[in-house]
Amino acid sequence: MRFFSRTLDKLKGALRKTAQVLNTDVRTLFVPGRRIDEAFLNELEEKFLLADMGVGNVTAIVDAIRERWRLGKIRNASEAQSVVREQLLSGWTDQDRELRFAATGPTVLLVAGINGAGKTTSIAKLAWLLKNQMNKKVMLCASDTFRAAAVDQLTIWAGRLGVEIIKHQMGSDPAAVAYDACEAAKSRGMDVLIVDTAGRLHTQEHLMRELTKIRDVVAKRIDGAPHEVLLVLDATTGQNAIVQAKMFSRSIGITGLVLAKLDGTAKGGVVLSIRDQLSIPVKFIGLGETPQDIETFDPTRFVAALFGDTEGEPQAQTADSSR
Ligand SMILES: Nc1nc2c(ncn2[C@@H]2O[C@H](COP(=O)(O)OP(=O)(O)OP(=O)(O)O)[C@@H](O)[C@H]2O)c(=O)[nH]1
Ligand SMILES: [Mg+2]
Predict the structure, then answer these.
(1) Averaged pLDDT, 293-309
(2) In sequence order, what are the residues at sequence separation of 6 or more whose Cβ sits closer than 8 angstroms to the Cβ of residue 151?
(3) Ligand nearest to the CA of residue 198, numbered in listed order
């Protein structure tokens, strides 16, 4: 009983946090009692475009509202909101958003993304989630050997989270670190090995080649590896994130996305653009800089958060206190 109520609290806490930080400005439209008119429709269109939902989605939403309004089926902002929700909740495919685990032996998660996207922080979050919520033995692999600070940053996270790390010196071969990490993960009975990679090398081709090399090394050392190639995207970069996803996808193949920095951006709607333009599922979202600021992505919860659905919740504490 206690377990269930705490789990529920946690979920609500996470939702509340998403609602607080998804600063999409969408909610201010739906003032109770406001009548639908052309000004309302224009404002809605503008706000949704600014939230980066993509022209196709916004047009479909506005058309659906206008059509029903013309037919006299809806009149006010609350009724328009129901139409918006309906539209936002439709169109999701049954993509598998769960992490794929190896049947036996270590699961390898290869994490890629351009520099500053949020890779290392997302790795800390995944390690926290896997270790503390899923009871997995986690090891990190410092294959970003390009910058000295990169290895240090990952080492600090490993220490704080109490997980193992395999590293070499700065400037060494990232694939060689991955090789050692695979051997160590197998011999030490690890459940999950998470590989950090560089975001920038001398050239983009160089970067893609390095990533391919790392991928090939882990594939040879561990059956079925990498079980996931996760691309970390910075949500604040909006449409540019989609361009990056297409590029990485072509070069190394991506199995899932981690959308970092959804807090503090008015562009949370980029999730919808991603859905429409890429056939890669968003598996996780990042909502801050601490390891706990991660959520698995769920369209229904996301839409609820977009509208700040927290009604009916106990007047609770802050999101932090529910962790
Ligand atoms: N607000 C917020 N900041 C984040 C989030 N994820 C990462 N950051 C911050 O973004 C900055 C870059 O994050 P890193 O994890 O170092 O990014 P990276 O992709 O590893 O960068 P490189 O190693 O330079 O390629 C750091 O200041 C992080 O604290 C997030 O979800 N929300
Ligand atoms: Mg990094």
Answers:
(1) 83
(2) 142, 144, 145, 167, 169, 170
(3) 1
User: From the CB of 191, is ligand 1 less than 6 Å away?
Assistant: no
Contacts by residues 71-74 (CB-CB < 8 Å, ≥ 24 positions apart): 74/36
Of the residues 22, 161, 289, 297, which should be mutated to test ligand 1's pocket, given the most ligand atoms within 8 Å of the CB?
A: 289
Ligand 1 contact via 23 beta carbon (within 6 Å): no
Per-residue pLDDT at 28 exceeds 80: no
3-class SS of residue 2:
helix
Instruction: Pick the atom of ligand 1 nearest to 200's CA.
Output: 25
Chain-wide mean pLDDT for the chain?
86
The values of phi and psi at residue 296, to 5°, are -75, 145
238 lines ligand 1 (CB under 6 A): no
pLDDT at 238: 81
pTM of the model: 0.87
pLDDT bracket for residue 187 (50, 70, 90): very high
Does ligand 1 have an atom closer than 6 angstroms to the CB of 120? yes
Q: Which fold has domain 107-306?
A: Rossmann fold (3.40.50)
The band of 211, judged by pLDDT with boundaries at 50, 70 and 90, is very high
Evaluate: CB of 265 within 6 angstroms of ligand 1.
Answer: no
Which fold, 2-94? Four Helix Bundle (Hemerythrin (Met), subunit A) (1.20.120)
Give CA 86 to chain center in angstroms. 23
